[in-house]
Amino acid sequence: MPIVNYIEHDGTTHAIDVATGVSLMEGAVSNGVPGIDGDCGGNCACATCHVHVDAAWLDRTGERTEMEAAMLEFAEGVAPDSRLCCQIMASEALDGVVVRMPAGQH
Amino acid sequence: MATRAIEPDFDPLAEARAEAYAMPLADIDMTDPERFRNNTHWPFFERLRNEAPVHYCANGRFGPYWSITRYADIMAIDTDHQRFSSDAHLGGITARDMDKDFILPMFIAMDQPKHDVQRKAVSPIVSPLNLAKMEVLIRERAQTIFDNLPIGETFDWVDRVSVELTTQMLATLFDFPWEDRRKLTFWSDMATKDETIPGNPTKAEREGYLLECLMYFTGLWNERVNKEPGNDLVSMLAHNPATRDMIPMEYLGNLILLIVGGNDTTRNSITGGLLALSENPDQYAKLRANPALVETMVPEIVRYQTPLAHMRRTALEDVEFQGQSIKKGDRVVMWYVSGNRDERAIENPNAFIIDRARPRQHLSFGFGIHRCVGNRLAEMQLRIVWEEILKRWPKIEVMGAPTRVPSAFVKGYETLPVRIPA
Fold it and tell me: Is residue B323 exposed (0-12), middle (13-18) or buried (19+ Cβ within 10 Å)?
């Protein structure tokens, strides 16, 4: 299974196996990784799974959808590398991907 | 109301259930405030979810409308802001159209792009950093309220705790003159009261009170606009380029939004939480044994209460939805109160369970671009309330039935008699 590296705001890293096709939000929530809430269950509708994608992986994680961009408007500390990770699916191509969590999800 | 016996809810509910399943589907009108006052709406929603999840009511109290009652369908409409508008001029965000001659523009009742810029002007007040700063003050004020409650005698929880706490919170957010703070509660009530219900103020009276609210807040604006930007909502609106040129009715609209949003909703969740615990003694015992469960109990309270029963949209184009033809201009009502009890999305949804695995998966805050801006503030207030209660008393007893607000929008309580055992 592809490995996803979640880095908490304080620097704590969690390397988690996430099955192909499962979202990075789901991968975090179902493995007890703190710092990602996912209130809407992956519908791109709450902006509580905000992550910063590591520069080396940005071009491989795809583009924000229109809805995702609209929801990110209301997240804290949004930067060009910001994504909602319920919209990023784990895959072999993303094996080893690195995402960093913001200080809070609201 | 005084003649009604103390609940349990199931007696009137049994009667309502029979009625709900006997009447023609087409005749079901969920905007009837009596069903909310009596707490008998549940079987009607249950039938709609099962038999007509996208249901057309041709003769609704406020005109024809579609009812959306399943969780996933509500999520779909709520996140489709391109086709389902919140615009005040099309009717706004409640089943009852906003009065055409008293339009209150507010960002919840706007579409993009104006919605986004105005929302962003107020959202910093509920940023994680600001919430952490406010927590100390909110807790101190809550402690004072709790320390002054009578022991061993019956009192009204709504007035002494729920209203007082949320009003103080709101006064803090607005940096509102402290002695006058109950005006905020009053204006909040005036904004949502349905004048077609006997005993409620008339439309002209309500509008008069709301204009009084505008005059009062215009004073605060004028006082703050020429000072350095402060950390309160009035100062934020007065200084932000997105909001500083608002016309008076737009200022009033956004004030009302923040007053109702920050007041009514949390107030009713504070009351609803106590009621739910009292009706579920096993959960109350579980909480006492492990006060850390406050964390997951708080979102469960918000789901179980669903302090706003619905939000409304207006279709901007013809939409085929779940086999039904919604026409451009149709009113579409998303019943959060029903979606939050949809067993297709939530396991054992009618049970109040304080340690659910994913308690924040509920509809009470809405989803999509209009999702409640103050949701984490609301949760913080509720968390403080329960942490402070558990520090003080093992139990608060509910001494009689609550009286409920007659409204299909604000799902709440007027009174709840309680007693803290001596």
Answer: exposed
Residues of B in contact with A67 (CB under 8 A): 79, 368
In this predicted structure, what is the pLDDT of residue B5?
A: 45
CATH code of residue A55: 3.10.20.30
CATH for B274: 1.10.630.10
Residue B150, CA distances (Å) to B62, B159, B253, B384 in order:
43, 13, 38, 20
Residues B272-295 have pLDDT tens digits of 999 999 999 999 999 999 999 999
Structural domains counted in chain A: 1
Rounded to two decimals, the ipTM of the complex is 0.93
Q: What is the pLDDT of residue A74?
A: 86
Best of B361, B364, B370 to disrupt the A interface (most A CBs within 10 Å) is B361
Domain that holds residue B413: 10-419
Q: Identify whether A57 is part of a domain.
A: yes
CB contact under 8 A, A74 and B79: no
- Is B203 inside any structural domain? yes
Q: Do B367 and A46 touch (CB under 8 A)?
A: yes
Chain A residues closer than 8 Å to B311 by CB: none
A50 falls within a domain: yes
**Residue B3 domain-assigned?**
no
Contact B375 A106 (CB under 8 A): yes
d(CA A35, CA A102): 8
Q: Is residue B4 part of a domain?
A: no
Strands B331-335 and B65-68: parallel
Classify residue A42: in a domain, yes or no.
yes
Question: Is position B2 within any domain?
Answer: no
pTM score, whole prediction = 0.94
Do the domain assignments include residue A88? yes
- What SS3 class is residue B410? strand
Q: For chain B, list residues whose CB is within 8 angstroms of any CB belonging to chain A.
A: 75, 78-79, 81, 112, 116, 119-120, 123, 126-128, 358, 360-361, 365, 367-369, 371, 373, 375-376
Overall size of chain B counted in residues? 422
